[in-house]
Design brief:
homodimer, about 140 residues, alpha+beta, DNA-binding
DNA sequence: TTACTTGCAAACGTTTTGCACGATT
DNA sequence: AATCGTGCAAAACGTTTGCAAGTAA
């Protein structure tokens, strides 16, 4: 998601636009792979030297609340964030370098309908995530 | 997964069968919703009073390594475990009470093939998880 | 000016590690 | 008997909270 839009949304929701928040928003918006709070912190200090890790946590929390970023679940944890896509999208992650691709069109309606009937659940949300190896990493295999 | 089978697998892999491990295996195998290490610990002490939380962590680690249990990813974290299913299965979770249903037959081959072609990724794994409200909770809505 | 935001320090909960003792094979 | 497993205590880690000072509106 565009960083301008993120800042607008923050403002719309009554949050002030500070240098710290601008820095965090810009970093997440400009990065195509998921970043942990500490990674955001390290990058943010380049443009915003005195910034504290606490502020990163608090800003990420607000951005997640507003749906501007989303938590990325990976094999070994789910503490990393990535900018949100538009509408209903899913993620494809490279397990080697962490690069991501978004995709939509999962067409799970029939499956979900069938599972809902069999289980009696009302299904409200679904997660679909793919893992693999991107083109670049296929050439230079580390693992 | 059956607790007998879990114990057999542990033994096959060179791990000793202690009371602590038996207790952890039995608890996880007998529970249909995801349990955190502390929850396992609290239940394990009923049959195994002196047991330490550390042992629970170490046992869960081994069970996960061997694929006998799996980590469950939920909205607010992924520190809970559930016994593994047989073959390729996915989870449906009740966001109200935590009960789970397994399902297979996701038929994502066509989708995955298409995304693989478009992205250039070699796709190795996929996660599909559904969230909703189970039959019981639909009646007694807490939220 | 006023309310929101910040950084610091400390608290907190979870997970990991070192070690001597105890148990399984 | 030898090795592996255990519990305890302490450390390490990530995250959250209280607070006084600073800043955006």
């Amino acid at each position: 998601m565009d960083s301008e839009l993120c800042l607008t949304r923050l403002k719309e929701n009554g949050y002030r636009l500070t240098d710290a928040r601008k820095a965090v928003v810009e970093i997440v918006a400009a990065t195509t792979h998921a970043l942990t709070p500490v990674e955001v912190y390290d990058r943010a200090r380049m443009s915003c030297p005195g910034m504290g890790l606490v502020t990163v946590y608090r800003t990420l929390e607000k951005l997640e609340e507003l749906g501007l970023i989303q938590r990325v679940h990976q094999m070994h944890g789910c503490q990393a964030f990535i900018t949100s896509g538009n509408g209903h999208e899913h993620l494809l992650l490279c397990t080697n370098c962490g690069s991501t691709v978004r995709f939509s069109g999962d067409q799970l309606d029939r499956l979900i309908g069938s599972i809902s009937r069999h289980s009696g659940f009302i299904i409200k949300e679904h997660w679909l995530q793919l893992f693999g190896m991107c083109k670049k990493c296929q050439g230079s295999v580390k693992k």
